[in-house]
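From the shared-data thread, chain only:
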Amino acid sequence: MSSLNFYQHVHGLFNALLAPLYAGSVVEFMPKFSVRGIWQRWRESYPRKETKVDDAITVFTGVPTMYTRLIQGYEAMDPELQAISALAAGQLRLMMCGSSALPLPIMQQWEAITGHRLLERYGMTEFVMAISNPLRGVRKGGTVGKPLPGVQVKILAEDGSDDDKSGVGELCVKSPSLFKGYWKLPTVTEESFIDGGFFKTGDAVRVDEDGYYIILGRTNADIMKAGGYKLSALEIEAVLLEHPVISECCILGLPDRDYGEAVCAIVVPDAEVKRKMEEELKPALSLEELSTWAKEKLAPYKLPTRLLLWESLPRNAMGKVNKKDLQRKLAADVQ
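Structure, as tokens:
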């Protein structure tokens, strides 16, 4: 087995490097993330149907942004190259996704192209992996699966009480791999645990009817309060990504005098649509157009009331948008 690896944090170190090495596989590093290079490596691994070379890549793991870029690269290919590339990618044994929530439209697009339903799971540096969709069994899109064997979880309600498993609250984890504490930070360590030795993850979750956990986002960045309603930015983002004009998007709560927070959508339009609309001296998307389209898919209080069109979203090395920094900068501009 050979796997591709690009990044070094808990996802990269444990899932993409140490676990494969422990299993006796070969891990192949690339100098940097390259859409063209990855598709080419897969095509080289599987030159024909049901045929693979000796050093073929069999497992791939990446963050959601990587899959978004790979989809964009696939869409830019000519039909013949698309067919060859999709056939090659479909012959890998396993593809996984982690580090941040995978938008359902991206999962669905990837499955339509490659036939792979990405295996999504949930972990943190403090305890490595805790929740996962199954290797064999039903992988539910929009969820991170169920707790792994030996892992205990609780959902902490906003008032600090243990909520029932059908509720919404902060995910708390206790597992054999849970860390002891933060180095030389006893106060932070104490504040990070609740009774029973459960670690507060800082992620808001809910559980669906089948017991699969759904990540709603970071409690300090992805959960907004608008007009008395508690909203998940990730839920709104997943819906907006279905819009044909939207290539990428980010939802933030910005200060609002009347509602506490206003739902602000930062959108990166599809490059081809943007080019055509610029020729007509029109924006790629207006707030009115977005609201009209989204009102059939979102409750009225979840609809964005502000829209920003950007060339790209600022992302860190793991492909994540630092929403807290972005929120502070935009909030200062609003005031």
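Residues 1 and 25 are 5 Å apart (CA to CA).
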